[in-house]
Amino acid sequence: MTGSGDKEKKEVDIFRDTPVRLLGYTNEVGESFRSQMHVKWVWASYVVASAYVVADTIDKSWKAYAKPAKGSATRGTTVTHTAIDTLLWQGLASVIVPGFTINRLCALTQFVMKTGFKSAPPGVMRWAPTVIGLGAIPFIVKPIDHSVDWVLDRTVRPKLSGIRNDSVKS
């Protein structure tokens, strides 16, 4: 029987297990504020989120490089597969799918406000898409993460022979 002191400590993934993960959602905040600010600030939010994706890809690739290759996979193959998996997962789960979701939700809110609530005060008309977009972010994160895992587990990951399915955590 092993004591609690013998348990392996789980490594904290700074890009997935800490508030740094929120940088991946910068573009959703930008999309929420699209009706409030110049489009260059929305694009800047995508730059921040994309930098987060690249940083996590580099981090996971570096960690894969530091480990010895397993089985018949070469270190280069393992690193490449890890980089592809991380880049795809983060790109889809942190930037593309949630950015599109919040963009469409805010556009729908704006449409509904203009067509169904014409008598609403101007402040409500202006801020409703932003408030609804920001409010939706916490509710879309886990479903999108799990959906992206599901899709990658059934498409790309089986093709990446040297990578385990748990190498990218959601």
UniProtKB/TrEMBL annotation:
**Gene Ontology CC:** mitochondrion
Query: Coiled coil located at which positions?
Result: none
- Name a Pfam family for this protein: MTP18
**Biological process (GO), any one:** mitochondrial fission
Family recorded in the similarity comment: Belongs to the MTFP1 family.
Provide the protein name. Mitochondrial fission process protein 1
